[in-house]
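We treat protein structure as text, and this decision shapes the records that our systems exchange. Because each token names a local backbone shape, the row as a whole describes the fold. An entry from our holdings is shown next, in its original layout:
>
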Amino acid sequence: MKTEAGVQSDTQVYGAVSDRPLSHTPHNLTTVTVASETIPEPEEPLIPDDADPALLAKDLRYDPIAISRYYDRRPLQALGRFLGIFTPLIWFFLGLWWDRRWGKVQAHQKRRAIQLRETLTRLGPAFIKVGQALSTRPDLVPPLYLEELSQLQDQLPPFSNEVAYGFIEEELGGKPLEIYAKLTPEPVSAASLGQVYKGQLHTGEMVAVKVQRPGLAERITLDLYILRKLASWGQRHFKLRSNLVAIMDEFGARIFEEMDYAHEGRNAERFAKLYGHLPGIYVPRIYWQYTRRRVLTMEWIAGTKLTRLEELSKQGINATDLIEVGVQCSLRQLLEHGFFHADPHPGNLMAMPNGKLAYLDFGMMSEVKPYQRYGLIEAVVHMVNRDFERLVEDYVKLEFLDPETDLRPIVPALANVFNNALGASVADLNFKSITDQLSELMYEYPFKVPAYYALIIRSLVTLEGIAINVDPNFKVLSKAYPYIAKRLLTDPAPELRASLRDLLFREDGFRWNRLENLLRNARNSTDYDFDQAFDQAIEFLLSERGALIRHRITEEVVQQLDAFSVKTVQTIAAQWFGSPAPSQNGHQTAQAAHGLEPIQRILTILGETPGFDPLQKLPALVGLLFRPEVQEMGQQVVSGLAQRAIARLIREILLREEVEPSASNGKGPIVPQPALPVSR
């Protein structure tokens, strides 16, 4: 059955919040600015010690110290909730153990799946989100559990219409049926933080009206208090390297932010501005006149979940193509602008009848700082190319390892686990295999999980879960590498230029195979612009920062041309005159055998790249000949070739003089010595 969805589900987020005025938004709304730093503990509480926790949500502030002071004075209330959380969970796991003990796992699986869904539903928003995350992982969760847990995305029990209509009247200042021309008598979907009605404005637009659940603040603050206490206890008793309290503070701050629907609306508009122009992406419009803290009105989206493959097929929509669209959009969110949708579960991604992918529910958004974005790109490149020494350094930059950590024993350990996970090529990459292998190192070496990374991995793992559901052979990382390659070739950022240099050059020469791999992958990126890559490469090469690369390129050109010329002379001498070839060592012979083959392969790749036209680039190449840097490179090439030729000539003369006396004395020929290097 085809489904229609507006804003269908609520989400959790991690991060810090702060209030500031928003001048361009009507009705004197406030904005919440997201930061990826851990919240500092204030010297004074933001609310009185005995204030009701609902005040925290009303003021849009997460203050862990104030929450702790409030519930420390109410231990019985906290203990009651603690028992209310863990008693049903313990009973569930005891049931699983009993089923295994008596061989009843298959017979009772449906009942246990329903029990888990109902338990998570009763426990509230934080635990519902755990179920939502599990509902996207067919590689981890049996099908019957997937079927039940998927109901947590948008099919939770609704609250009463009377309460919902009361919130609409309080927030918007009028009765719902006066504000909206039409409004469904019952909600069309319900999730952890709110429920959605389908409506119509008096101007004719169809809208989704999202109304917040009552009593959220009290339950959420108490759950956060208990989880933070457990995190602190675990930190003290198990000597964990990851700062669990900091992670919980990020979680608490973001879930407070999520209770402000006006902020969600601003998130949606920012998301639309950054990514709404991408091919195949659609972001619904927010109607600010009908949006406040507990009520959100946005454009109604008619669509189908990506997991309903038969329905999509009947509509002529290829779900795999839409997954690729989502992957490409996620890459730009995480690695280009840093503002990303952190909960892309099936209820928040809809296939529209026109074939576009619509994003819904912008409550859970997060930020990735520039140095983190570049660090992630470098880490993927080093991982794919099995450069584990650099990869360990990336972990230090990304705060997984402390700077003072001894990295030497970690390098071979990484090489061991990743070589098993990566398989034969980038096409074998997937997050599950990598995270499974990496988790083995977490206990043996001093790794820690930085707080900002929690939502990144959640977003990527959730997206990969949907992809696997659509296509079991889909590999998110293999689809991502063309974009990574494009960024390396086109992004002028110093961090990525240094990474590209390290990737392509090594002490014994230029790594042509890696350049081929980059060009081959980059041409598969949807927005790869060869002209941009060419112009930026030339600009960087001829700049001050490109001096070292110019020198390395000159060395490589001299080496390749020298090997090619030797091979050519050898061939001509053998064919025309029957004379022996000039003496060469093994290294020279290997170089001559390869000659200019790498350059020929690269030219072939470029010829197959969309947008590449050598005739268009000819004037630019001619103009380069007049640049002082290029002329200097030319002089160095000529000088290097001349030096090699002279060195070879002298060696031949000396060898001939030594061979003649040795022959007369009955001695064997003298082994030729290696060629001289290019002068520096």
In short: Residues 628-664 form the longest helix (37 residues).
